[in-house]
């Protein structure tokens, strides 16, 4: 692990990005942000009305997120962000150095059950199918780790921290 890790926790809605991202940031003692809090009101209204975002809706949001990450390079940070497509992740990389990714991966069944149990969020569970359609899992040339979300939160965090520690010992 680099001294000041810069990490995006990615995945579809309900995969646990906010929960796991905040827990990793706490363990690493670095800043945390949730990309949901950077959506303009139009994006929130669109999702809340049951319509998925498209590339044009997401571009300015991703640019803002890339700038947030770049600002936090000196101290390290964790950002939970869907980052569903390779092109979105490439945009974040283009504004940063040394960005790592953690993909929280799960079956539609497991994640649907999580969304059903989550209250008070603007994102309707009906959009989950479109999230899986858009999702492009990490490719082998992308710097990151994929972890199955069908385990408890502490296990996911421990697995991630152990895997990055092991990788840093090998480099
Ligand atoms: N590993 C897990 N095991 C059980 N419940 C989880 C796990 N990860 C997240 N949750 C719960 O699932 C719901 C969705 O998690 P959340 O962090 O909001 O996902 P996202 O930010 O990806 O939409 C929340 O109610 C959260 O408490
Ligand atoms: O790119 C998108 O379509 C959105 O970012 C989406 O993926 C995200 O999931 C929503 O903002 C809901 O927020 P949660 O992921 O917290 O459900």
TrEMBL record:
CC per GO annotation: cytoplasm
Pathway(s) per entry: Carbohydrate acid metabolism
Keyword Nucleotide-binding appears in the UniProt entry: yes
GO BP terms: D-gluconate metabolic process
Substrates-to-products reaction catalysed: D-gluconate + ATP = 6-phospho-D-gluconate + ADP + H(+)
Enzyme Commission (EC) number: 2.7.1.12
SUPFAM superfamilies associated with the record: P-loop containing nucleoside triphosphate hydrolases
InterPro entries attached to this UniProt entry: P-loop_NTPase, Shikimate/glucono_kinase, Therm_gnt_kin
Pfam families to which the protein is assigned, alphabetical: SKI
Enzyme class: transferase
Key words of the record: ATP-binding, Gluconate utilization, Kinase, Nucleotide-binding, Transferase
Domain of life of the source: Bacteria
Molecular function GO terms recorded: ATP binding; gluconokinase activity
Coiled coil start-end: none
Similarity-based family: Belongs to the gluconokinase GntK/GntV family.
PANTHER family linked to this entry: GLUCONOKINASE-RELATED
Name of the featured protein: Gluconokinase
């Amino acid at each position: 692990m680099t001294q000041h890790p810069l990490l995006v926790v990615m995945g579809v809605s309900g995969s646990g990005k906010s929960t796991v991202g905040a827990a990793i940031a706490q363990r690493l003692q670095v800043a945390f942000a949730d990309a949901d809090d950077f959506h303009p009101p139009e994006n929130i209204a669109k999702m809340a009305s049951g319509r998925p975002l498209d590339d044009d809706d997401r571009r300015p949001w991703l640019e803002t997120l890339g700038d947030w990450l770049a600002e936090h390079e000196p101290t390290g940070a964790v950002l939970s962000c869907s980052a569903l497509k390779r092109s979105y992740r490439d945009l974040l990389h283009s504004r940063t150095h040394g960005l790592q990714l953690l993909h929280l991966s799960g079956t539609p069944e497991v994640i649907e059950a999580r969304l059903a149990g989550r209250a008070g969020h603007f994102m309707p569970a009906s959009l989950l199918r479109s999230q899986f359609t858009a999702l492009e899992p990490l490719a082998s040339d992308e710097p990151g780790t994929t972890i199955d979300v069908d385990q408890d939160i502490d296990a996911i965090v421990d697995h991630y921290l152990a895997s990055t520690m092991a990788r840093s010992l090998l480099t």
